[in-house]
Every structure is written in C-alpha cells, then in structure tokens.
Amino acid sequence: MDCINLTLPYPPTVNHYWVTRSIWVQGKPMVKYSVGQRGMRYRRDVAQIVLISRIQGFGDAKLRVEVRAFPPDRRRRDIDNLAKSLLDSLQHAGVYDDDNQIHQLYIEKMSPVRPGGVEVKIQRLP
User: Fold this and answer.
1) Could you list the residue range(s) of the whole structural domain that residue 38 is in?
2) How many structural domains are present in the chain?
3) Cα–Cα distances in Å, from 111 out to 34, 52, 95?
4) What is the domain-level CATH number for residue 24?
5) pLDDT tens for residues 11-40?
6) Tens digits of residue pLDDT in 85-123
7) Could you give the CA distance from residue 124 to residue 126 in angstroms, rounded to a whole number?
8) How would DSSP label each residue in 53-113?
C-alpha cells in the first residue's frame, strides 16, 4: 500500500487528550501524564474507522502525512494542538509503527463544518 485516505472525527486538543496526575515517589511530588477519557474515546473511534476501512499498516516506512482540518465551530484553535492526538491515535490504530516515521507533515485549517472532522492522506515516501 502506497497511499491511504481517511476521514476522521475532529481530534481533541493536547489539553484534552492528556491528563496529569500528581503522585508521590520516594517522598517527592511528581507529575504523571496519561491519556484521558477524551483521548481514549478518540483512539477507540480512530481504531474502529481504520478497522472498518480494512487498512493495512505501513509498517516502519518513511511517511508523508497531509491533514485537512475542519473545526466544528469558529472558536480560536491552534493548528498544532490537533497533530499530537491525531498522529498518536493513528499509530495506536496500527496505521504505522511509530509517529517518528513521519518525515513530512502538512496541516491545513479549513472553514468550520459541524460536527468537525479531518481528512488525512498518508503516503509512503521513497
């Protein structure tokens, strides 16, 4: 497979994907990061779409990823905040082995469309 196209729900921002918890280790406070409920739900939704689409992964190939993001409304959003949760969820769904394989990433913010979504094109690089 050299190229796939996916239409996915709009991803949660990094602020909603990750949650922090304070824990004590050897009497010192530390912060632990983990995927929160919104992040887990998004991962599950992406994995289900990948499964239904019968997409076979790229393995460890070098990749180019193009994203067209359609926000759900006109609120201000930082475009870089959607990349992490989207790319991690695609990795978790088995589309590629690790998001460090992505050598080219292009993200374009489009006009708002309810309920929001992203169009993702992933290509194998030579």
Assistant:
1) 3-124
2) 1
3) 31, 28, 27
4) 3.30.1330.70
5) 998 877 778 778 888 888 888 888 889 999
6) 999 999 999 999 999 999 999 999 999 999 999 999 999
7) 7
8) TTPPP-TT--EEEEEEEE-SSSS---THHHHHHHHHHHHHTTSSS-GGGEEEEEEEE----
